[in-house]
Amino acid sequence: MSHDVIQVVTTTENKDDALKIAHLLVERRLAACVQVVGPVTSVFRWKGVVEQAQEWQCWGKTTTSRYASVEAAIREHHPYDEPEILAMPVVAGSASYLTWLAEEVGEE
C-alpha cells in the first residue's frame, strides 16, 4: 500500500489561503489530511530576480491516483501565477495509518 501513497506540498503567501486549500482538499476527499505549516522563509528566483518571502506550506496526504485531481484543485484555488505543487512518494508507514488514509480518500 505505501507505494500508492504520496505527500503533495504547495506554498501560499498567507495562512488563510493555505487553510482554504487544506479544507478544500479534505472536504473533496482528495486528501485524508493536510497539515498547514508556517510561516516559512522561501528564497527563490522569479522572472530573473532573487526574491525572499514568508509563506505557508500545505502538506497533503493522498494517493497517486488522486494526484491529478489534487493538482487541479490547488491550481483552481491558488493565488500564485505558478504555484509550487510537488508530490513525494511515501516509501513506508504505519499499516493502520495507510489503511485509514486510503479509506478517507475513497480507496478502500
What do you see in this structure?
This protein is α+β, with helices and mostly antiparallel strands and 108 residues long. The protein has one domain: Alpha-Beta Plaits (2-Layer Sandwich). Helices cover 31% and strands 38% of the residues. It is built from three helices and four strands; from the N terminus they run βαββαβα. Strands 2-3-1-4 form a four-stranded antiparallel sheet. Strand 2 (33-46) and strand 3 form a beta hairpin. The longest helix is centred in the N-terminal third of the chain and has 13 residues, at 15-27. The chain is elongated and about 45 Å long. The N and C termini lie close together (11 Å). The mean pLDDT is 95.
